[in-house]
Amino acid sequence: MRRRDLLRLAALFPAAAWLPRLGHAAEAGTTSALPRPGDDEAYWAEVRRQFLITDGIFMNTGTWGALPVPVLEALEAHMRAFETVFHQTPFDVHALRAQLAALVGAPPETLAFTRNTTEGMNVVARGLDLRPGDEILLTTQEHVGGRCCWELVAARHGLVLTQFPPPVPAPSEDALFEAWTSHVGPKTRVLSIQHVFFSTGAIQPVRRLSAWARERGIITVVDGAHPPGMLALDIQSLGCDFYASSPHKWLLAPKGSGFLYISPEWLDRLWPLIASGGWDDLALKGDRFDHVGTRNDSLLVGFQAAVGFHNAIGSDRVERRCRGLATRLDAGLRAQPGVRVVSPAAPELRSAMVSFEVDGRTGTEMQQRLWAMGPVRVRHVGEDNLDYTRLSTHIYNTPDEVDRVVGMVGEIARTG
Ligand SMILES: Cc1ncc(COP(=O)(O)O)c(C=O)c1O
């Protein structure tokens, strides 16, 4: 690693013990990978320079994010040092837990590290004591990562899985709320709710639903794959019982970074999915759920660097940028003849993912055409008989990219 790169890392993560020593300590902290936060295009252009994305327009953060270079370098530096065997520094997982807790609005002891949302959802589904006949309620637009865990426990323990179609495009928060509550029956024990739909990007009223469910003794499990790193988040104030996430998406952490929030009243009652030393030591709190054997600490180092990178910009600023670009995209797409946006029109329900259909074109065709024209990397949402094209806008995207993609979609819609 070059000295200049080391200085950049040291400036972002001054307390990181795993960084190779700097020869000239006085220089540490005098350079920064990012300029002072701002909101103008010059600032965002500098942010964009922190990424390796060069050959096209990347609009699929909803699947996974691109690592900022300082995050990649932190991960790589730790991995290299570790493999020298004699320069291994133990990673302070509790420091990361505290930093993540501050970022997502949860007490540190309520967090467990996982690989991703899929794992977190499985920890919950398989760790609850549900009985034959208990009903799990979810929509017909769940991601497999949040749905299959319920299918498994339903098949194994005789539970009932009820799926209902959500309103699309979601007209209002009330409509989303009522879609849930009108399907709850006497046997409903769990609501499994995506905070942000993977299919349309619609934001669900998790706080309201959690309060409603709590009054009726119903458990709320939130598939929160998308919000961290996209929306400013305060998990505990949502009032849900569990919240599983994938910071490898919008928080731009390494693939394999996940977390699970377990609300205080469940910390002693949920069964861990994987048992190792301390599995029954309740004093460990959330830590009890991530004693999973040897793991790759370099990924956690990268995760910590991603939290540092995000904080250097600021959650509110990130959210404004991501959603601001999505608003521009949404408006551009709605103005194209033959294009039907399936994401909500109401700004408060719209996240940083916009999905649409084009008359006479399949989603697969759209994906192929945009790849050929851009290349633009998009997500085809083909699950459950849907046929949407989904575009994600993150801090490395630009207004110009948004406009170019709108132009391409318009051209495909016009000419085929
Ligand atoms: C809503 C939702 N839930 C769960 C997942 C699964 O995420 P992971 O593969 O990180 O477990 C995704 C992935 O895109 C998703 O969009």
Write the layout of secondary structure elements.
Layout lengths: L2 H10 L28 H8 L8 E2 L10 H15 L9 H12 L6 E4 L2 H11 L7 E5 L4 H14 L2 E5 L8 H9 L6 E7 L11 H10 L3 E5 L11 H4 L3 E4 L12 E5 L34 H17 L1 H20 L4 E3 L11 E6 L4 H11 L2 E2 L1 E3 L6 E5 L6 H17 L1
Parallel strand pairs: 1-11, 3-4, 3-5, 5-6, 6-7
Antiparallel strand pairs: 2-8, 7-8, 9-10, 10-13, 12-13
The chain binds pyridoxal-5'-phosphate.
The site of pyridoxal-5'-phosphate has 12 residues, from helix 5 and helix 6.
Which features does this protein show?
single chain; alpha/beta; seven-stranded mixed β-sheet; four-stranded antiparallel β-sheet; 13 strands; binds pyridoxal-5'-phosphate
Outline of this structure?
The protein is α/β, with parallel strands linked by helices and 416 residues long. It has 13 helices and 13 strands. The strands form three sheets. Strands 2-8-7-6-5-3-4 form a seven-stranded mixed sheet, sandwiched between helices. The protein has a four-stranded antiparallel sheet with strand order 9-10-13-12.
